[in-house]
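Raw record, unedited: starch synthase
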Amino acid sequence: MPNQKILYITTEMYPYQEDTNMAAVVNKMALKMHNEGNDVRVFMPRFGQISERKFQLHEVIRLSGMNIIINDLDQPLIIKVASLPGERLQVYFIDNEEYFKRKQYYFDDEGNPFDDNDERAIFFARGVIETIKKLNWVPDVIHLNGWMSSFVPIYLKTYYESDTYFKDAKIVLSLYNEKDAVLDKNINEKLKFDNISGLKALDNPTIKSFVIESMNYVDTVVKGDEFLDEDLDKAFNETATQKSEYLDVDSINQLY
């Protein structure tokens, strides 16, 4: 199944993150599809822990310079790119001083979730969508990994609904056991600014509730971890969306 354009949107990927199943799985999937002759791109946040020098990230000037308005505030979008070490596979990093410079991912040193995790997810999702359009590269398959990426299909099917750019792309959502956290209660107003309302997740906005919500906006849901926690497993079993049990990396192209 070569010659497909496959977009991986993820919050983790080895070697930028280590010791997590998601990071390892995304690395193996992307490399397998790349080595089979597909046109593969990966997008992820440029978290502060990712060393620009070590991984040779550099800014892509022609893609940077856009502003994304979050809750009536202009936030500059910076795009950086690197090749996966030892491979000819490009990884694009969504960056912004306000949202991604800090060294921790989603929780401070005391274990409290960051107040702006919701804004960071919105910025990431819209940043990926706008950058793909600017690249003039239309994916056949979009594979989502990590809770922040779950905002992408919600935006594609609401805010960008009249935009035909992604109309033929099939969206795959992988589910992982991620640490849950409450999102800012004002996320309702921030999404309303983008004409998004009526989401069930807004009744109790958490990382997990948005992942569960996004199942309604994709073409296929697959288990990224073999055994999901109780809430995710229940949502997986109850979703009307086409779904697949856990697949090893060698079988992933069957899904595509």
